[in-house]
């Protein structure tokens, strides 16, 4: 059974930076696309960033484009989210997600971590 464990959250002032990490185990990491999502209190979970299995293509939500960078290390089985110029509206629980692709059964396709909390406040 695949597992994802996030780390790196915390409290940061507006304009500051944080780097989130997500450690993967129990599945063939290098053939899964990886994503970051976030969920703020009282709001729907929203997409933040995605990276393909080889890391050759990334895509971001408009709200974070130019400030956040997603990266992965297939040897270490890690995915990262570098967050710069943080704003109070970036405060949320950030969740790591693995997507095995459309050929997989729905109940096996996605793996979710438990999340790490980011609070941007002065």
Oligomer: single chain
Radius of gyration: 14 Å
What portion of the residues fall into strands of 2 or more residues?
Answer: over 45%
Order of helices and strands: EEEEEEEEEHEE
**Number of beta-strand segments:** 11
Measure the end-to-end span: 40 Å
Average predicted confidence as pLDDT: 96
Report the uncertain regions.
none
Helical stretch count? 1
Overall geometry comes to globular
Global structural class:
mainly beta
Largest pleated sheet? 7 strands, mixed
Helix content: under 10%
Itemize the secondary structure elements and their pairings.
Layout: E1 3-7, E2 10-12, E3 18-25, E4 33-39, E5 46-51, E6 58-60, E7 68-73, E8 78-83, E9 92-99, H1 106-109, E10 110-112, E11 116-120
Parallel strand pairs: 2-11
Antiparallel strand pairs: 1-3, 3-8, 4-5, 4-9, 5-6, 7-8, 9-10, 9-11
What does this molecule look like?
- This protein has one helix at residues 106-109, and strands at residues 3-7, 10-12, 18-25, 33-39, 46-51, 58-60, 68-73, 78-83, 92-99, 110-112, 116-120.
- The protein is mostly beta strands.
- Strands 2, 4, 5, 6, 9, 10 and 11 form a 7-stranded mixed beta sheet that branches. A 4-stranded antiparallel beta sheet has the order 1-3-8-7, with no helix packed on it.
- The model has no long low-confidence stretch (mean pLDDT 96).
In short:
By secondary structure, this protein is mainly β.
Features:
single chain; 122 residues; mainly beta; 7-stranded mixed beta sheet; 4-stranded antiparallel beta sheet; 11 strands; 3% helix; globular
